[in-house]
Amino acid sequence: MIDAFQFEFMRNALLAGLLASVTCGIIGTLIVVNRLVFLSGGVAHSAYGGIGLAFYFGWPYMIGATSFAFVSAMIMAAVTLKSKQRADTIIGVMWAVGMAIGILLIDMTPGYNVDLMSYLFGSILSVPQSDLIAMASLTAVILALVCYYYKDLLVMSYDEEFARVRGIPVRALYFMLIGTVAVTVVIVVQVVGLVLVIALLTISPYIAEKYTRSLLQMMIVSSVLGMVFICSGLWASYVYDLTSGAAIILVAGIGFFLSLLFDRIVLMQRRKIWLKAHGSR
């Protein structure tokens, strides 16, 4: 595997994976704790409209996808705040319409047939250096925002009413959180694609939540798990010539089921100890 890093595309892939791990670990934690998985799925799939827009008008991919995903995310955030009962329907519609717009614009792009699969299932091996710079800049912005508003996000995530009583601007924070989800999705799309992005955003934080005692610990453990999953998936895709995005998610999925198995074994052991202790009385 070390020989593979003599190639620039492998070094870029590793750096892209590490950046995605950090953003997924931090924002994925906030998504899981605030139960925003479905909304994040809507943002991820509607971002495809931005990819289509970028190709149709000849804009850089990151600008088109980030702008479109951000606007879609703001609309979804407003809908979930104003009409919670119908929010899932509206998010579902925007999810489908965003993808439809993207596909149609790419179809209409003259003289250029883009590989749809690379955006649906990721193409981490083809991330150029210019996109790496953009990914690093966006990751730095997300890190700065989360660090600055960490205490407010912590209170809002676990007790929204208490946060309001303390004068924390919950509404503004919620919009900011959904906006960072949109930016994160665009960063991660190149690693695992639109279809698999939610898995990478949620599996690591879900596992981390069970073995940590604070939001900060959860973010750190989740980022480390993401790095392990991405590096392992990248190694498997290189050695066995597999699709990198699918290999990364499969490794994460194995980690998820192993954590469930571990929990089950621990539970059985505790039950045995309890039965032994009460049976001996």
UniProtKB/TrEMBL annotation:
It is a multi-pass membrane protein. The keyword Hydrolase does not apply. Keywords: Membrane, Transmembrane, Transmembrane helix, Transport. It holds the Pfam family ABC-3. The chain crosses the membrane at residues 12-33, 53-79, 91-112, 132-150, 187-208, 215-236, 242-262. GO terms for biological process: response to zinc ion; transmembrane transport. Its main location: membrane. It is found in: Cell membrane; Membrane. GO terms for cellular component: ATP-binding cassette (ABC) transporter complex. InterPro entries: ABC_BtuC-like, ABC_TroCD. It comes from the Bacteria. Belongs to the ABC-3 integral membrane protein family. PANTHER family: ABC-TRANSPORTER METAL-BINDING PROTEIN, METAL TRANSPORT SYSTEM MEMBRANE PROTEIN CT_417-RELATED. This is ABC-type Mn2+/Zn2+ transport system, permease component. It comes from Desulfocapsa sulfexigens (strain DSM 10523 / SB164P1). The lineage of its organism: Bacteria, Pseudomonadati, Thermodesulfobacteriota, Desulfobulbia, Desulfobulbales.
